[in-house]
Amino acid sequence: MGNLNPLNLLNKEAWNAYQEDYFTFHLMERPDYFEFFSGGGVDLDEHLAPMLGDVKGMKLLDTCCACDAAQAFSWHNLGAVVTACDITEKAIEIAAKNAAKMNLAVSFAVADMQTLEPIGDGGYDVVFATCPVWVQNIEEACRTWHRVLKKGGKLLWHMEHPITYCIAEDKNGLHITGNYNTPNTEIYDSFDGTPLARRHGGFHVELKTAEHFWRISDILNAVCGAGFVVAKVHESAVSNPTDMNLDYEPKDSSEEMEMKNLPGEFTVLAVK
Predict the structure, then answer these.
(1) Which of 3, 33, 5 is nearest to 212 (CA)?
(2) For the chain, what is the domain count?
(3) Which end of the chain has less Cβ packing within 10 Å, N or C?
(4) Considering the domain boundaries, does residue 232 fall inside one?
(5) Does any domain span residue 27?
(6) Are the CB atoms for 271 and 229 separated by under 8 Å?
(7) Domain with 166 in it
(8) Residue among 243, 258, 246, 253 nearest 174 (CA)
(9) What's the pTM value of the predicted model, to 2 decimals?
(10) Which residues in 100-191 belong to E strands, given as ranges?
(11) What is d(CA 90, CA 66) in angstroms, rounded to the nearest whole number?
């Protein structure tokens, strides 16, 4: 996969250590995982498929599939010809084994979503991207995604809304915890996995990670600067804070979550 940027290498090592536990947590959350996807199940945020349109027969590249490959398998079940990438070898090993077990014709490649070094130019109709928090250089990433698309190809970039990284909520209400106006990189000395881990017993490893925080303007400027034309954007409210990397302490069940009044997700559709 070539020489990784040092910060991306930190993330690769931490996520590689997490993948086996991560998939165990997925099975705890969805015991019918194999039956669901082998039976044609689709597990995507409800706006994603309508936003992109009919994908039957289209070559789609998932830039960050993780071990569960739920989105990659969902796009396959909607009719796309899917190649799924992840920066970690362990994620691809688990996902490829599961695809074979379920007889799902998905191809896999170990690749950093920022550079996609094994992926050739101009071969895809759709690039599906997520998680800019793990991308150190979003301008390079967008240029890469532009490179691998055919002319007229579409980028669908789905993420937690950047504002969610600047707020917290507890029994006393909402609190501002960060400066949205200052994109930055945070280095953490250990890694506790994802919200899924916190719901199913926890995970901890003494490996550093780097998270990169971007504004909406940074995201859109990177997309446009790479040569894309933005076709549509979508914002949606926080639906379940326990599914997201939010600093949220549940209130009494009778109280309405204030965070629901803010955007929780952001998606951009752009065309090459």
Answers:
(1) 5
(2) 1
(3) N
(4) yes
(5) yes
(6) yes
(7) 6-271
(8) 258
(9) 0.92
(10) 107-110, 124-130, 149-160, 167-170, 173-176, 184-188
(11) 9
